[in-house]
Amino acid sequence: MGRLKQFKESYFLYSFLHDKVAIVSLVVLLVLLVMGIGAPFFAPHDPYDTTTIDILDAEIPPVWLEGGNPAYTLGTDDQGRDLYSTMLYGMRISLFIGIGAVGMQAVLGIILGLMAGYFGGKIESLLMRMADVQLSFSTMMVAIFLSAIFQAAFGVARFEEMAVPFLIMVIGLAEWPQYARTVRASVLAEKKKEYVEAARVIGFSPRRIMWRHILPNTLSPILVISTVQVANAVMSEAALSFLGLGMPVTKPSLGSLINSGFEYIFSGSWWITLFPGFLLVLLILVINLLGDWLRDVLNPKLYKG
Hints:
Layout: H1 2-8, H2 11-17, H3 20-37, H4 39-42, H5 83-119, H6 121-135, H7 139-154, H8 156-161, H9 163-190, H10 194-202, H11 206-214, H12 219-242, H13 254-262, H14 271-298
Helix pairs in contact: 3-5, 3-14, 5-6, 5-9, 5-12, 5-13, 6-9, 7-9, 9-12, 10-11, 12-13, 12-14, 13-14
């Protein structure tokens, strides 16, 4: 009860309740998360069930346009799949890849950032030079390189089966330096404080000091960067899928949906690209708005007691 009362009286909750943008962003994000995760319950059709898909139903316009079908509220794509249902399933895949990639980034970045900041010296120089080298390559370059190797080694069919873990690995490996640099900077500031010196005097091991004492005091910047990185990871997945390096057409994400409908956008079937594109922009926007709010609230310089 004490912690609950403390939370109710906290500046964090006060700031949230007095920020309409943050409230609306959180509500929209929660709705999108629930609908994405619960796609099998909210989607009227299953885009993975080929027995229910008819190619003759391809490119049916939204229900409010001439030629629309009440069974397909937002129309159908070029394969005859219900676009609304496909978008929900696609958003679920995009969110899964985004959250999974950020989890991988966080694990790698936190471990390497803690080691670099705490031990310093040659270990810090080596790890930071690794981060510099990694940052010199974009996510796209890493994806093209790894996908070429993967497809050459296992074939295109196997690549399509392993698309989700492949994208998580690619985006995770490409973006971990963001965490490593942030954690390292926080550790450099924390390890000079008295509680760390006291832990050393008591005889605690470096591992315990790093994970039990220093890491909890670096969670604020980690939380902020995680929010931003989820949006970046979702956007990276969409870009890779749009370029044909991500999810296959049979297992659509928002990026692959935009890609599949792009060639039809000027032939009249604009909804195949426009609706998934709008959903992707909305998802990234609300995540970034929440990230901006978190950054402002958790910034000690802006803290008002």
